[in-house]
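In response to reviewer comment 3 from the previous cycle, which asked for concrete evidence that the modeling workflow produces usable outputs, we include below a single protein chain processed end to end. The sequence was submitted unchanged, and the resulting structure tokens are shown without manual editing.
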Amino acid sequence: MSLPTILVADDDRSIRTVLSQALGRGGYQVRTTAQASTLWQWVEEGEGDLVITDVVMPDENGLDLIPRIRRIRPDLRVVVMSAQSTLMTAVKATQRGAFEYLPKPFDLKEVLAVVARALATPATPVQPLAPPQPDEQMSLIGRSVVMQDIYRIIARLTTSDLTVMINGESGTGKELVARALHDYGRRRTGPFVAINMAAIPRNLIESELFGHERGAFTGATSRVAGRFEQAAGGTLFLDEIGDMPPEAQTRLLRVLQDGEFTTVGGTTPIRANVRIIAATHRDLRQAIRAGTFREDLYYRLNVVPMRLPPLRERVEDIPLLARHFLNENVEGAGSVRVLDDEAMAQLQAYRWPGNVRELENLMRRITALHPQESIGADIIAAELAEASNTAAPGESAGGGTAETLAEAVERHLRRFLASGQDGMPLSDIYDKVIAEVERPLITMTLAATRGNQIRAAAMLGLNRNTLRKKIRDLDIPVVRGGA
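The workflow returned the following structure tokens.
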């Protein structure tokens, strides 16, 4: 049995060499070329079992080859690689029929895994969409590994109408992702309708979502279409879904189950012809445990979960984002602002509780308040300090919430683990850390129940005998208060 042949097209000699060697060691035959025309000739002649092609080549764009390859050899998988690591590249590659998109620089283990998966996956027919119109003002920005993963997920989802749940901190760009899924997807010619659950009074949410008939309630002087009707044929974006009241959750679940709804005060069912994208900054699993969010609704919405990383997890994107926001404000500022190296380093060291939105606001302030073209670390430090001083109680600069429990634990663990690098022996770390967390947790819960162990066990979700054993093992004093 002959070995599978991989056709590699890239005008960079070093990439051709690295791929040829890695694929050869992986048990494949490899043919490489710097020209799209040569690759096309091989494909026409029936050569190869898989194609790996760059996008930008001297004689033709690799993306333009994909539909032609798919027409004459629909079973031949195509993997696209590109140094233009943007959302648009990922979307175009996927929608033209590429099996996978790999941003450069890539991990050779990932390349080998993609090749193995491509050769083992049966080909499926692809219905190419009309080419999306690029909107650089709208597009997500970033070339970090985590953002490349987001781009690939978005690209795959543009070819379906699956329901998506986006989770991310405030300011991470959840609505931008929702708009990208719509604007590059199959429903792009329909409307994109957004509704923020946290911004609507509880008694009006059902009317906002489903509309109402004349006379349905006091003040309803005419029939009004709700967001489901307004979004017909397009996308309905349910922002801050975790803030939806229980009664509205019940109605939304019924719509998702039945595919139709009725207006408030109405009796005629209306077909729900929308794609649902939901978003939240909350931990919905915790909300389910607390009884504030329906578990069955969660699973209806969480068909495809997407987590948007906070800015502190993609610090390599900060220079790109900062320059983008500075350039956006050039017209009003009169001249381009440039951040020096120390200023950029300071931006990358900051935790960004308000994420991308906070960075955008900072760049706007700088262009408005500082006329000098070169922005130094002193200006960045002053602006960040000012933002911290004006944050509301319980908030951090940029509108983010105070340090979370997970962040506090992470900070202390980092310090604890670092102590082992100074000669202090570390062993049984897991038991020590759990004990460190358990003791104050149980102590404070007992204090809250004034020593009532039955109530404390119920609050902690522990068996009473288990709680007693932990109290004894951790030597926790119990004050009897009889609450």
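Residues 134-138, 393-402 have pLDDT under 50 and may be disordered. We consider this sufficient to address the reviewer's concern, and the full set will be provided in the supplementary archive.
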